[in-house]
């Protein structure tokens, strides 16, 4: 009798998926505000700190990002494997504890990136490599768990799209406040070295606070009972069976075509977006001759990115997520393509960047909705549900894109003969302009081609979820019969 009641409760949850409260959605978005305070500070300003404040060679500075982000990519996969194969799941859930454990260390490590001491150049390079690599590892622990949690919060497709929109608005808000606030804090202090450190401390405190508030106000409404039971059985059998289970999960990733398409799409779009973010400060300082223009115009440009995120449910309902994604890439490519030829002032830079960020806001927000869909697709296709491994595979490619975004500007700056805090040659200025505009155009166009091969339409996803629901109901009935 108890088994029947339990089954009916679970069935009710499947037929009427959890509708999240506004508080939960706000808290989930706030989690990404905190993540971006901690992450974007390094992604936006660390290259300039390395080259213009510490005095590292741009090639060396680019190498820090390349090595650290490739390491992070593998760390993401390892963290995803760890999360998926945890056996003792406490009352906090499978994913939430990692947000709690990683928050404070993440803040401390972020500040350490901007506290390179005035010692020998070799010691400074070692400090830069070690601090950024360790920071990235801890960030993987926090962020993989945070992203993997979305499918456990709701199985309602509409709610997932809204949750993704909230997350992306949080991401854009974190990026906006970091971009607007960091340099003014630096300029308030007597030296750039002190200014960068103080600004990092401010955003570290804010980032940790946001993550802890998010942790306290979100919860995991669903768990995979079959996976938990399997994990318990593996624990009794031994490590050999555990290894087989892990390998089975990885094999399922390579059979997940939508995941592979999404991973490659992010490799192009995320690297393009972050290259533009990193190089815009060089562009403003040496081409437009006013570095503070980035802080002012960011209110407008990131406002358009947030608007793009907010419009995701509207466009998704009318066009579908796939067609909205392709349309967003087209907007981005056209805007930056025209901007390359016409940008010659702060106003034109703000205008073309705003339009391109609108397209990027759509893309970034859709990514979080699509990754939840491909988790369900993977379970439907392979009978293996692995949120952690799927999400970490996705972030693996995002980290590779960040490796490109951090290293390519450094390498190009070295190639074009960039000299910190001096007037640049015409060749150097043209190289900086190309990084800001042409690199994003190439990324957007390549992504448009890739997304034509993305197979999950709205109708396809509905069929997948109905099939999965039938499987789960049958599995619960079978387990109830076995217990009886």
UniProtKB/TrEMBL annotation:
CDD domains associated with the record: MFS_MelB_like
Domain of life: Bacteria
GO cellular component, one term: plasma membrane
Gene Ontology molecular function: any one: symporter activity
Compartment(s): Cell membrane
Record's keyword annotation contains Cell membrane: yes
Keyword Zinc in record: no
A Gene Ontology biological process term: carbohydrate transport
Name this polypeptide is given: Sugar (Glycoside-Pentoside-Hexuronide) transporter
């Amino acid at each position: 009798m108890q088994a029947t009641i339990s089954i009916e409760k679970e069935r009710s949850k499947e037929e009427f998926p959890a509708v999240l409260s506004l508080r939960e959605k706000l808290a989930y978005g706030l989690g990404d505000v905190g993540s971006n305070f901690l992450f974007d500070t390094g992604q936006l300003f660390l290259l300039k700190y390395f080259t213009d404040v510490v005095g590292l060679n741009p090639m060396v500075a680019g190498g820090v990002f390349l090595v650290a982000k490739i390491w992070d990519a593998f760390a993401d996969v390892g963290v995803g494997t760890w999360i998926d194969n945890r056996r003792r799941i406490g009352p906090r859930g499978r994913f939430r504890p990692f947000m709690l454990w990683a928050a404070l260390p993440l803040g401390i490590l972020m500040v350490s990136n901007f506290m390179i001491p005035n010692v020998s150049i070799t010691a400074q390079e070692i400090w830069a490599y070690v601090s950024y690599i360790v920071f990235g590892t801890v960030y993987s622990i926090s962020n993989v768990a945070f992203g993997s949690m979305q499918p456990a919060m709701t199985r309602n497709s509409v709610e997932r799209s809204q949750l993704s929109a909230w997350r992306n608005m949080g991401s854009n808000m974190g990026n906006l406040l970091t971009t607007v606030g960091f340099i003014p804090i630096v300029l308030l202090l007597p030296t750039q070295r002190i200014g960068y450190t103080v600004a990092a401390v401010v955003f570290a405190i804010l980032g940790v606070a946001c993550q802890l508030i998010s942790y306290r106000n979100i919860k995991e409404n669903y768990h995979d009972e079959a996976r938990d039971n399997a994990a318990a059985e593996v624990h009794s059998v031994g490590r050999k069976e555990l290894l087989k289970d892990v390998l089975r999960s990885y094999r399922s990733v390579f059979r997940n075509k939508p995941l592979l398409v999404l991973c490659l799409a992010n490799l192009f779009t995320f690297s393009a977006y972050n290259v533009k973010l990193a190089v815009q400060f060089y562009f403003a300082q040496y081409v437009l001759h006013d570095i503070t223009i980035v802080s002012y115009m960011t209110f407008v440009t990131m406002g358009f990115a947030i608007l793009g995120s907010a419009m995701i449910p509207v466009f998704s309902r009318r066009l579908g997520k796939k067609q909205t994604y392709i349309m967003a890439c087209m907007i981005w490519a056209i805007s930056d393509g025209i901007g390359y030829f016409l940008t010659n002032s702060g106003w034109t830079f703000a205008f073309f960047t705003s339009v391109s960020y609108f397209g990027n806001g759509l893309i970034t927000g859709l990514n979080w909705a699509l990754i939840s869909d491909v988790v369900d697709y993977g379970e439907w296709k392979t009978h293996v549900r692995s949120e952690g491994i799927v999400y970490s595979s996705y972030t693996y490619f995002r980290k590779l894109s960040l490796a490109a975004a951090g290293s390519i500007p450094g390498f190009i700056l070295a190639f074009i003969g960039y000299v910190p805090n001096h007037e640049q040659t015409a060749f150097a200025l043209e190289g900086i302009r190309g990084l800001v505009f042409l690199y994003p155009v190439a990324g957007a166009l390549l992504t448009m081609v890739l997304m034509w091969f993305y197979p999950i339409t709205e109708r396809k996803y509905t069929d997948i979820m109905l099939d999965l629901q039938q499987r789960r109901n049958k599995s619960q009935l079978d387990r109830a019969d076995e217990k009886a």
